[in-house]
Each structure stands twice: as C-alpha cells, then as structure tokens.
Amino acid sequence: MACHSHHYWADVTLDAVNAYWQDAAAMADLKWEKIFGEMIPAFQRSIASTLNLPAPEQIALAPNTHELIFRLLSAFDLNEPLRILTTDGEFYSFTRQLLRLEELPNVQVTRIPTLPYATLAERFDEELQSGQYQLAYASQVFFDSGVAFPDLLALAERKPETTEMVIDGYHGFFARPTDLGTVADKVFYTAGSYKYLGAGEGMCFMSIPRGCQLRPLNTGWFAEMAELENRAEGVGFGNDWLRFAGATMDFSPLYKALAVLDLYRQEEVTIPNIHRYVQNNQQRFLQAMDNAAHPILNRKNLIAHDLENGHGHFFTFRCGSADAAERLQAQLRKKNVLCDRRQQLLRLGFALYHPESETFERLFT
Question: Cis omega (within 30 of 0) on the bond before 216?
C-alpha cells in the first residue's frame, strides 16, 4: 500500500528495457534519430491525449521534475526581485529549492497554509490575483495528505498574465481524470512515470504554454537541436519543448513508459476506469476501518477533504508522533502490508493491483 510512492512495474517494462539495450547496441549514436524522431513524439502524443493538451510538441522531458522546475526558475532574472506564491504542502524537492533561493536578498516566498482545505482556493486566489508574483506553484494533489487542491484548474484559468504558474501534477497524473484543455496555454504542468503510471523512475515531463518566450539559464545540448540549422551568434531557443531541454540522459525509462501506455491502450484501461476502481477499494477500506475501531487508523486521524471528489489515491493518518508512525508501519510490515510515512504521517495507497476481493481487514486485526 505504498503505491503512491512506487507503483509496481508492469511486466512489459522488462521487454522495454531489453529493447532499449538492443537499439543502443545496434545503432550506437544513430539511436538518437529513433529516440528523437519516433519515441519522444510517441510519448508526447500519449501524454497530450491523457491530459487533453492541444500541442504534444510542447511537452518537455527530463529524468525528474526538479530538473524541469529549476530550469524554469533559471529563466527569471535573479538580479531583479522575484516573488513566488506557493503553499506549505509542497513536496520536499521544491520546498528545499525555495529555502535555498530565499537566501538570496531579492527572492521572497509567500506560503499559503493548506489548512483549512475548504478555504484554500479562496485564500490562494486572493494572493494570486494581487498580481504581485512572478511565479505561482501548487500541487494538484498534496503529497503529504492526498487531498486534491480544490478548484485549482479554475483558479489557474483566471491567473494574471504577468504571473507564470506551475501545477505539480505528480500525485494526480494517471490517477485522477485531468483535463488541461482550458489552461494548456496558461500553466506549466509537471508529472512523471514513477508513481501512478507504474513505469519506474527517470521519465518526467513538463507541459509548456504555447508562445512561451522564457530563456532558461539552465540549458543543455538537447536544446541546441532546435537551432542547428539556423545557428547565429548568441544563444537561441526553439519554440517547442526543446526550449526547456537539458542534456544526455538514460532513455530506458522512456521505453518503459511507452510500453505501459501501450498496454493500457490495448487493454482499454482508461483513467476514469482506474479512478473508479480505486475509489471502490477506498470505500471498502473505510468500511473495514469503521468496523474495526482501530486506535490510530480511524476517521478522527484521517486527513481528508471531500473523499468522493476531492481526494487522490492514498489516505494519510496522523499518528501523534513520528515514533508512533514508525511503530505502526513496522506492525503492518509484519502482516506483509507495505506502506510509508512522513514523520508522524502514515500513508496508505490504493492501486489497480489490489483485487476487488480485498477487504483490507488484515490491516486492523
């Protein structure tokens, strides 16, 4: 039940890794023609179809979302004041990076408390509409609680034009049905294959609004591919994903991700199907939990907001202390239940590979 952190890989990913090895062995440097000419466009089309993005060529790739976000941050002139709006519930990677940036005298960060969730959108929107921020950043589903940011896409749709906005979609992508059609040219959206896609680490992406003219300071040789035919003095940038491209990386995760996407397509497994299936599992879990009257795993300790419509694919419980969370995690491990924790928070995830016959009663006995 740690699938919100690491989904088990589908069997097709083993053949995908072997295929990448064979291509590299047979083609050597010519493999780049296949990767950039066939594999990357196929992945971009699949992601665009999944999220209803109108321009697949605007989807940038990198081994992790931190690389993409730092590349975006590098496009701002740090000689000028930089004001960033975010929440206090963002993932460690972004949180740490902001703390480091705040050591610079001209960077100011405003963090909106996520609690209470019922008023989060209103409080965040009030700051956003002030027009004082160059960058806004928020999670689609918060990594610590599993709660979905209420009305985030509607909020993003009316953001000021002077503010760039990023949605961290890692805990929403391939879990919750997500339609970015109305905000595709307004926001950057980041996610990857490590969690709900089940294709492993190393393949992340960021959608880029069409017409984006930002010039990242952090830029690699992949970005040069857009300028090879029109090389001029200075550093040029293309008008597609290569604007935010980095440098050499291992593309076996790309092969794995494509294999999983193809598997779902062949089996006609859709994200709405997945979401409904997981929600049914969650309801069975809640029923077993309510019947058990567990001292920690109960409604009082469950962090939740609108379980039917406003939640991701994992539940988070307050355990009172980090020691209590560690003890409960160890007790569950003895029952062959894998889960994870963040300090005093214990997280339990749900996935397609939990059978419909699973009652979850073993967690509470």
Answer: no
What tokens were used for 120?
Answer: 């989060």
Dihedrals phi, psi of 50, to nearest 5 degrees: -65, -40
**Strand ranges, E, within 164-217:** 164-168, 187-192, 204-207
Q: What pLDDT band is residue 227 in, cutting at 50, 70 and 90?
A: low
Q: Which CATH class is domain 271-363?
A: alpha beta
What average pLDDT score do residues 123-128 get? 98
Positive/negative CA dihedral, 248, 6, 321, 287: positive
Q: What is the DSSP string of 137-163?
A: EEESB-TTT-BBPTTHHHHHHT--TT-
The answer to whether the beta carbons of residues 346 and 319 sit under 8 Å apart is yes
Q: In the predicted model, what is the mean pLDDT of the chain?
A: 95
Give pLDDT tens digits for 251-265. 999 999 999 999 999
| pLDDT over 90 percentage in the chain | 93
Q: Is the pLDDT of residue 230 over 60?
A: no
pLDDT value for 29:
93
Interatomic CA distance for residues 244 and 71, integer angstroms: 7
Per the structure block, which two tokens stand in for 56?
Answer: 């697949």
Q: How many CB atoms lie within 10 A of CB 247?
A: 12
Measured CA to CA, the distance from residue 134 to residue 81 in angstroms comes to: 9
Calpha distance 185→205 (Å, rounded):
16
Contact 109, 140 (CB under 8 A): no
Beta carbons within 8 Å of 88's beta carbon, 6+ residues apart: 111, 112, 113, 114
In one letter, which amino acid is 75? A
Give the model's confidence band at 229: pLDDT under 50 very low, under 70 low, under 90 confident, else very high.
low
What is the pLDDT, as a whole number, of residue 309? Answer: 87
CATH class name, domain 12-265: alpha beta
**Is it the case that residue 231 has pLDDT exceeding 80?**
no
Domain boundaries of the chain, sorted by first residue? 12-265, 271-363
In this structure, the number of other CB atoms found within 10 A of the CB of residue 138 comes to 25
Cβ contacts of residue 178 below 8 Å, gap of 6+?
Answer: 50, 51, 52, 140, 169, 172, 271
